[in-house]
């Protein structure tokens, strides 16, 4: 979550204020995705890398013995890459780096209402071979586990699934499942899975933070690097009241991005998350961890 990123950087800053000889150890199961995301955060925070793309390339290159595996292996999950980019925007907007006079603030968490999830460009390339689809929306809780909405099953030939204006804020995970039948719900499948990406019946998922909807909506792909998006967002402290559309290419969807070559999803297809802002959050501010 974004809070975990910020807490990690705050811990790093506190340690460095006490000693220059300390060692920071980061680990996870595979030492690539979660570990890589935090290592990239530290590379950005320390200004060793100028932007998210630079940090991601640097970590992958330093982690990989190219004589053994060839292509550098680093952070590859689209949602993890998205969060590294979100952090880069946040640090740049508040100029909150390791040499700043204050620690990085926590992100604001404006509320938005999710209206529908649309499928474009033949995202479900073989709907006739799929079971009915349902959407699971989670926000808050431990590791984004709190249930906000689980839709009823819909015909896989449909290109839009209504999300009932469900209100979310902060970290949000949107998942699409095939209905497996029986008594197992989508939220139960997600909870029971040791790895959310391997939940039973999962078709795709994506994770984002509502504080960055404007920047995410401007970009069409995670491969692009932000330029003046932060300056634009600073002038408009929240997403507009009118309907927003957040388009995500299939290549930037967790799980689905690995099923394009096998024909489950059409190359160039996408999802569009339709949403609107909540008026009370139009000028929400980040939580402060210091006194100005």
Structural account:
There is one protein chain. The model is unreliable at 224-241 and 288-292 (pLDDT under 50). The radius of gyration is 19 Å and the shape is globular. The chain has a four-stranded antiparallel beta sheet with strand order 4-1-8-7. Strands 3-2-5-6 form a four-stranded antiparallel beta sheet. The chain is of the alpha+beta class and 292 residues long. The chain has eight helices and eight strands.
Summarize the structure.
This protein is an alpha+beta fold. 28% of the residues lie in helices and 21% in strands.
Helix content: 25-40%
In N-to-C order, the SSE pattern is HHHHHEEEEEHEHHEE
Radius of gyration: 19 Å
Q: Write down the overall mean pLDDT.
A: 85
Biggest sheet statistics: 4 strands, antiparallel
Would you tell me the structural class of the helices and strands?
Answer: alpha+beta
Percent of residues in beta strands? 15-25%
Low-confidence stretches: 224-241, 288-292
The N- to C-terminal Cα distance equals 25 Å
Structural topology:
Blueprint: H1 2-18, H2 33-45, H3 52-63, H4 66-69, H5 78-94, E1 111-120, E2 133-139, E3 147-150, E4 160-169, E5 171-178, H6 186-192, E6 202-209, H7 213-218, H8 229-235, E7 244-249, E8 270-277
Antiparallel strand pairs: 1-4, 1-8, 2-3, 2-5, 5-6, 7-8
